[in-house]
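Budget justification aside, the reviewers requested a transparent look at the raw inputs and outputs of the sequence design task funded under Objective 1. We therefore reproduce one unedited record. The lines immediately below are the structure tokens for a 327-residue chain.
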């Protein structure tokens, strides 16, 4: 299959710190790949190497069939981790300037700029200076600079960071639209449910190493459900009683329900029967593992570690925003 991006045994160090170690990834043309992992995992470093902003110590990269993204720069739309616009420029002029840098010229340019501004709810800011816009508006303007020139490949570093739920949904829908139009999209994110909603390929990284590279379908086949949600019929010591049921690994409260993790190899249907027999419940539901669950299970299986700490590392990354990842 023709590949849009190939990362072949790439390693990158900064002094004594190994940011990325022996990384391999292939993203097929037309694919939509979510690049996920906790803060400091090496996601931004990898995307910067793909964009030839920095270079690997060893290994090879190919982008759109070329040895360097520089050779294909006008065919790529890149949203960097560091947000920024030319604050003194008017929005329309800024977008026009950025599109021309990427080779978009001619009579279609002006109308295209206005059409995109209207699509993201910014049709009234064309003649305003960028510095007059809110942070969220500026982020949407910067997103437009990645798509205006109709690139073949979109590389988006934390595209949802700092956006409110409405604009997060808008950007998600625009990414999906670009993908459906045949564009290749790779984006890094701490917002794992967005990756689950959007992606057909998941690339998971931890401490600079690849821990998972699979389609969502493959992940769902490989990682069987091991979490059962229970609503108790009455408050009390039901959690303690459920903890004593053979095969229960842990019981935690989650949004008013009890989240019960069961041991490997047990049949969920039999565990549900045992839980219902142990305490009166009003609801019991088998929950498919989330990408966060999958990450925790992989890392614990390979390297151990406390589950709460691993989950916290992901959520801290989400809270850190675009400036949160040094590697």
């Amino acid at each position: 299959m023709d590949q849009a991006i190939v990362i072949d045994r790439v390693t990158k160090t900064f002094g004594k710190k190994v940011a990325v170690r022996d990384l391999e990834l292939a993203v097929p043309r037309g694919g939509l790949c979510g690049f996920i992992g906790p803060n400091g995992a090496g996601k931004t470093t990898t995307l910067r190497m793909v964009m030839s902003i920095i270079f690997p110590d060893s290994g090879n990269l190919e982008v759109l069939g070329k040895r360097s993204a520089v050779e294909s720069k006008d065919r790529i739309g890149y949203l960097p981790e560091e947000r920024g616009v030319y604050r003194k420029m008017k929005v329309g002029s800024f977008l026009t300037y950025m599109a021309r840098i990427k080779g978009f010229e001619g009579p279609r340019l002006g109308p295209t700029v206005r059409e995109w501004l209207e699509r993201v709810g910014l049709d009234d800011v064309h003649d305003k200076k960028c510095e007059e816009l809110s942070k969220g508006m500026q982020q949407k303007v910067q997103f437009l600079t990645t798509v205006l020139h109709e690139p073949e490949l979109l590389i988006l570093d934390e595209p949802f960071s700092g956006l409110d739920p409405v604009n997060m949904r808008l950007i998600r829908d625009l990414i999906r639209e670009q993908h459906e139009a045949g564009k290749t999209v790779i984006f890094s994110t701490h917002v794992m449910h967005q990756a689950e909603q959007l992606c057909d390929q998941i690339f998971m990284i931890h401490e600079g190493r690849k821990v998972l590279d699979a389609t969502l379908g493959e992940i769902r086949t490989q990682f069987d459900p091991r979490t059962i949600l229970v609503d108790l019929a009455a408050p009390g010591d039901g959690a303690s009683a459920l903890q004593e049921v053979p095969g229960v690994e842990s019981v935690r409260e989650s949004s008013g329900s009890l989240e019960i993790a069961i041991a490997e190899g047990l049949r969920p249907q039999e565990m549900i029967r045992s839980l219902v027999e142990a305490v009166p419940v009003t609801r019991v539901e088998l929950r498919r593992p989330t990408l966060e669950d999958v990450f925790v299970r992989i890392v614990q299986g390979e390297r151990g570690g406390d589950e709460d700490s691993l989950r916290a590392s992901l959520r801290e990354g989400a809270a850190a925003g675009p400036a949160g990842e040094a590697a």
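The first strand starts at residue 3 and ends at 14. Residues 224-287 form a domain with the Alpha-Beta Plaits fold (CATH 3.30.70.100). Computational costs for records of this kind are itemized in the attached budget.
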